[in-house]
Design a protein that fits this description.
555 residues, alpha+beta, nine-stranded mixed sheet, two-stranded antiparallel ribbon, 22 helices, 13% strand
Amino acid sequence: MASSSTASPFCTWLLAACISSPYEKDHPMRSSIFQSPKRLSQWARRKKLISKCSYVGGADFASNLSSSFSVSGIHNLMSSFLAFEPCYNSKVLYESLAFFGSKRSRSRRQRQMNGAVHSGITMAVPVQRAEQGTTKKKPLTKQRRVVVTGLGVVTPLGHDPDVFYNSLLEGVSGISEIGAFDCARFPTKIAGEIKSFSTDGWVSPKLSKKADKFMLYLISAGKKALADGGITEEVMDNLDKRRCGVIIGSALGGMKVFNDAIEALRISYKKMNPFCIPFATTNMGSAILAMDLGWMGPNYSISTACATSNFCILNAAYHIMRGETDMMLCGGSEAAIIPIGLGGFSACKVLSQRNSEPTKASCPWDINRDGFVIGEGAGVLLLEELEHAKRRGANIYAEFLGGSFTCDAYHMTEPHPDGTGVALCIEKALDQSGVCREDVNYINAYAASTPTGDLKEYRAIIRCFGKNPEIRVNSTKSMIGHLLGASGAVEAVATIKAIQTGCIHPNINLENPDESVDMNVLVGPKKEKLDIKVAMSNALGFGGHNSSILFAPYK
């Protein structure tokens, strides 16, 4: 009886598998055995073998064989087979194996089977493999803490984090008339334009001549962040570069290089820059920076319009938290103040036209706001795993607590009327970071000086933090304009400097606040001292992309 009980499932499984497998045609689980006369004749020649297996398996074999012809039966038998010892009737087993084909394969298997049987080794290999298949699970890694150890910027207010933030504290505007090209044909003639910029010491002269400005800004800001973080040549040599990565994005990429290529194409493709395609892609800045540094960890770019930087920062932090990397350069870069960029946004009718008063044109939450002011530049953070930073004695600016992103799923350029996407993003960021809303007392808002966008975000903020009497909100864009894909990173730098200095910058040009806003929440025209517990920085983008990231003093 014991022999019968163990032999039957195996023989049934083996026979079902052998019969169904050779006759599959169009569908892998559909046997044609009942449709082919030729196959039926072959089946007739195997009746003797079936009767033998029936003898070994017992009276229930026929019903087992019948069920094995169904798809579910085959699956069940295949899985159940692993739980049984093999058929010890070697003669029957050898003949069963004959279903597989050539005499050579049969004789080889017979020799292997004979060796196993005579040595006393049971043929439970499938069982052993199943046991080996349940490999030891990798123990859960404790979520690692992420800190900010370096900052790099290229902005209309300077290319050093201290110079940049001191200008913000003093309420200096970086918005002026565009000087790079003639704007006479455009309704907007102002921007947050970088008037003076040099790549000396940061980018090779050869690359500087060929690459788009967004790449030059990106590489410069990235290397400035490394220098600010104390990553000297000696420190760099000791880094495990396999665990260092770069995620710096751009909303529009190399527009100038691509536009120049189109103009050259009007003459001949031979006049085109051979690097126009790679230099136009948003990922190439991160790639070239990694090549310069030899960093072999995660390297890519994310493009979510004006929310790009926050998405890059969040993903970079996640790589560190999951234990995949120890150090990440992350942020965003943009250089869209060119005719096609200005013309495109003018066609969208989203730009301010206060050309006579450039420094007052960007005025978030003011009743006279008429659109955003386009800006350019780059911002890069050096994120690092806490213990890694402590081992090398790094200066820690702040701790990254977490964040989140959502989608409005409403309109291509307009935010959701109720601000539900932004509110959901804030709630998720708090939940993901484990932060109580009462602890957040500073928000660097997205507020781009658009008639509808400013209020939608403001209402979402009040919905989430309205009962917090300590909350203070400002907008960096009132002084530098909207840096598009780079805005989130540059504003993250401002947020971190606020934590470091204990001072938050003013909202300039907020002379006639919209009746819907509360000036007890918004920062006034002068800088304010604030002991920041937790700071939030928001970034929103075309397509309904919302993102919120959280920083706190390192303790």
